[in-house]
């Protein structure tokens, strides 16, 4: 009687122990590591989060590893400590984990991107005796806005319908300045020559609202005529009206 009671007790304890072992085994075997996003895009120099967590929630504070392309160590947590000795140099001061969430199984990685960060990331944790991992592919793009607007600007200067008012090519500005200066020089030369010849020929009053050029001092007739100058040369039978009506008049332009 007494002995069988003990046997029952022992059997009961064994049963409970085996049930407990089975359930914990089951939890271990069904516990998973999940990377909900299989691929992510990010702009360079931006902070991106690579999500990774356990289901159900389990403490992963002892060991978390993030590795790129199975070769470059991105961020390592071993025996509860962050280890940076083996960290790839492109990841220095650019990675972190959410330390307060490690005990609830959240081993997401926070990463400030570089162009060289494109690749496949492996998130690895240890659950019980087993190592679990999952993968995320990250693609890092160059800056989008600033660089494409520059491309668009150079396109518009080449296209005939481009916005030329706001984007004068430098060569055009130089050409316009030279053109204006050239026209001014030509006008001054013609004024000078015309007024000289008019004063020489007909003693006309000075008609323009700016000072008389130095070749014609104060309306006096200068009689030194260049014989090769067809304008200054007096011609026979030529009236004053005929002269002024013809050559060198500003209206002719
Ligand atoms: C893990 O942490 C990140 C950052 O705080 C958060 O965005 C994400 O939702 C968390 N995941 C879980 C399952 O708590
Ligand atoms: C990682 O793999 C991707 C895709 O194969 C590749 O483009 C990238 O250059 C690799 N990065 C490194 C650092 O090996
Ligand atoms: C354009 O892209 C280059 C590299 O591709 C980068 O170094 C530069 O900063 C970008 N320009 C701007 C204005 O962001
Ligand atoms: C500017 O460039 C981007 C990318 O190259 C393009 O998507 C966009 O349509 C362009 N815009 C104009 C006005 O050309």
TrEMBL record:
GO cellular component, one term: external side of plasma membrane
GO biological process: one example: regulation of cytokine production
Signal peptide: 1-26
Native organism: Perca fluviatilis
Keywords, sorted A to Z: Immunoglobulin domain, Membrane, Signal, Transmembrane, Transmembrane helix
Location of the protein in the cell: Membrane
Residue ranges of the region described as Disordered: 146-168, 225-253
Composition bias type Polar residues, residue spans: 147-166
Protein name per the record: Uncharacterized protein
One MF annotation (Gene Ontology) recorded for this entry: signaling receptor binding
Ranges of biased composition (kind: Basic and acidic residues): 237-253
Segments crossing the lipid bilayer: 172-191
């Amino acid at each position: 009687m007494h002995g069988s009671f003990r046997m029952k007790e022992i059997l009961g304890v064994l049963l409970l122990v085996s049930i407990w072992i089975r359930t914990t085994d089951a939890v271990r075997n069904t516990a998973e590591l999940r990377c909900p996003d299989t691929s992510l895009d990010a702009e360079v120099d931006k902070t991106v989060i690579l999500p990774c967590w356990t289901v159900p929630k389990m403490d992963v504070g002892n060991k978390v590893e993030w590795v790129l392309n199975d070769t470059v160590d991105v961020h390592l947590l071993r025996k509860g400590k962050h280890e940076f000795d083996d960290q790839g140099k492109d990841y220095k001061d650019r990675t972190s984990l959410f330390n307060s969430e490690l005990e609830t199984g959240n081993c997401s990685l926070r990463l400030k991107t570089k162009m060289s960060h494109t690749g496949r990331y492996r998130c690895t944790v240890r659950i019980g005796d087993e190592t679990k991992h999952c993968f995320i592919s990250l693609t890092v793009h160059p800056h989008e806005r600033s660089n494409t607007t520059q491309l668009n600007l150079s396109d518009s200067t080449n296209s005939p319908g481009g916005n030329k008012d706001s984007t004068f090519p430098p060569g055009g500005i130089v050409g316009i300045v030279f053109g204006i200066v050239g026209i001014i020089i030509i006008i001054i030369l013609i004024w000078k020559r015309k007024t000289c010849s008019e004063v020489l020929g007909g003693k006309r009053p000075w008609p323009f609202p700016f000072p008389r050029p130095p070749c014609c001092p104060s309306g006096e007739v200068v009689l030194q005529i260049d014989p090769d100058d067809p304008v200054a040369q007096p011609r026979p039978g030529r009236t004053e009206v005929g002269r002024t009506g013809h050559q060198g008049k500003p209206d002719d332009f």
